[in-house]
From TrEMBL:
<dbReference type="GO" id="GO:0004058">
    <property type="term" value="F:aromatic-L-amino-acid decarboxylase activity"/>
</dbReference>
<dbReference type="GO" id="GO:0030170">
    <property type="term" value="F:pyridoxal phosphate binding"/>
</dbReference>
<dbReference type="Pfam" id="PF00282">
    <property type="entry name" value="Pyridoxal_deC"/>
</dbReference>
<dbReference type="InterPro" id="IPR015421">
    <property type="entry name" value="PyrdxlP-dep_Trfase_major"/>
</dbReference>
<dbReference type="InterPro" id="IPR015424">
    <property type="entry name" value="PyrdxlP-dep_Trfase"/>
</dbReference>
<dbReference type="InterPro" id="IPR015422">
    <property type="entry name" value="PyrdxlP-dep_Trfase_small"/>
</dbReference>
<dbReference type="GO" id="GO:0019752">
    <property type="term" value="P:carboxylic acid metabolic process"/>
</dbReference>
<keyword id="KW-0456">Lyase</keyword>
<dbReference type="InterPro" id="IPR010977">
    <property type="entry name" value="Aromatic_deC"/>
</dbReference>
<dbReference type="InterPro" id="IPR002129">
    <property type="entry name" value="PyrdxlP-dep_de-COase"/>
</dbReference>
<feature type="modified residue" description="N6-(pyridoxal phosphate)lysine">
    <location>
        <position position="306"/>
    </location>
</feature>
<protein>
    <submittedName>
        <fullName>Aromatic-L-amino-acid decarboxylase</fullName>
        <ecNumber>4.1.1.28</ecNumber>
    </submittedName>
</protein>
<keyword id="KW-0210">Decarboxylase</keyword>
<keyword id="KW-0663">Pyridoxal phosphate</keyword>
<dbReference type="GO" id="GO:0006520">
    <property type="term" value="P:amino acid metabolic process"/>
</dbReference>
<comment type="similarity">
    <text>Belongs to the group II decarboxylase family.</text>
</comment>
Amino acid sequence: MENTRKSSIEISKEEFRKIGHQLIDDISDFIDSIDQKPVTPNESPGQLQNLLGHSQLPEAGKPAAELISKATELLFNHSLLNGHPKFFGYITSSAAPIGALADLLAASVNPNVGAHILSPIATEIEKQTIAWLAEFIGVSPSYGGLLVSGGNMANFTAFLAARTAKAPKTVKEDGLGNASKKLTVYCSTTTHTWVEKAAILFGLGTKSVRWIQTDASNKMDTKVLEATIAADLKNDCKPIMVIGTAGDVSTGVVDNLDAIAIICQKHDLWFHIDGAYGVPAAVVPKFNYLFEGIKEADSIALDPHKWLYSPLEAGCTLVRNPQHLIDTFSSHPEYYNFSNGGDETTQNFYEYGLQNSRGFRALKVWLALQQVGRSGYEKLISEDIELSQMLFDLAEKHPELEAVSQNLSITTFRYVPLKNSKDNNYLNALNEALLNELQAGGEVFLSNAIVNEKYCLRACIVNFRTSQKDIEEIIEIIIQSGRRANLNRSQTEKG
Ligand SMILES: *Cc1c(COP(=O)(O)O)cnc(C)c1O
């Protein structure tokens, strides 16, 4: 028998080097010319299925070089490019190139960041990243936490910690069935859908979510919050937490965090901030005032894969007293021998959240934080906000556009034809048709928001590639498409 095993999945040093160099060359060209490509090729699922063919699971193997080259071609030419300077849809950022290199490096070493012994340096890097993120948003670096896949998971992690802390002590053993009072949670009507999933997942049920209406500025109405808590207490419920949003998904509004913090203190409630999108703006001194009260939060969710420009996936949960995470998630099965050789600072991340085996997400975040530094991020985030304000101003000045809202880096606006109906139903249908046309057109990618019953075009700029020129150009693109869409609609309505 040969004593060296030949594994078909191994790639020789020479071949790896060759394929890798080619791939890096191709990626460099791709990033360098990304603005020359359509934002999306707008192909149907059927077209893409045809491209992949209907062949079965391969029986025999193929050379890695051929496969990587084919995959490169598929991804570069058949993807929606959220790294394009005119991509402003949803809240998805252009990915920092250093993040791509970081992911390659992380995957090559492949530490399992579930336990310190399995990932010695990676665990320490993640701990440092968490402390830096806390410092970044202006809370004490003694906050603890972990990186997760995204905003939903970051909020879920905090939600379960809040439940453990505020529900009856036996909740971990007995579940909610034995709780004598109905547990209730509070958030504004603008809160992201994760809260419903959390209520289902963690056994409270969706009826336990009290959706608090917003005031004229679209922030949670804290008077209504107070009154709702008081009514629930009278009705023998047990309020456990209030969720403040720092940058709502539709329009970027930040709740009055300070006022919510005071109410939480008064009633001994867990104060959670969903800052998945907006909380990094706290790094900009000019916007500090929006985030007053953040230091009072028991937990905060933020998404490095949004405004810190990390490639997907990277979310983060920060908890003021990290012991709450351990109380919630720690267990010590007999098959783990993770205390060996450690000291009192040994941290095993599996005890901090829902995941067990964990990838090295922290590396891409840690490297980008150092590549540009705090001041670099302050500049990038400020510029995104300025571009968003510029878009609002241009829309306001244009006779065929109506500027509707502008908060953080989200602008909403709509096309309003000079002649023709100004009826709101007509404008809503027109702008919906316009958005569909723009999304299919591939010149610019926007999403939508409904603001005061107006169907709006929505641009969220978390994009370090966008410049003033892009903003000026998209105004033109929208006007041309808007006129066409209006002509089509007014003709169909007549016909
Ligand atoms: C994006 C977002 C989420 C969801 O985050 P994912 O990373 O998409 O899971 C939750 N809350 C807010 C405020 C968000 O902006």
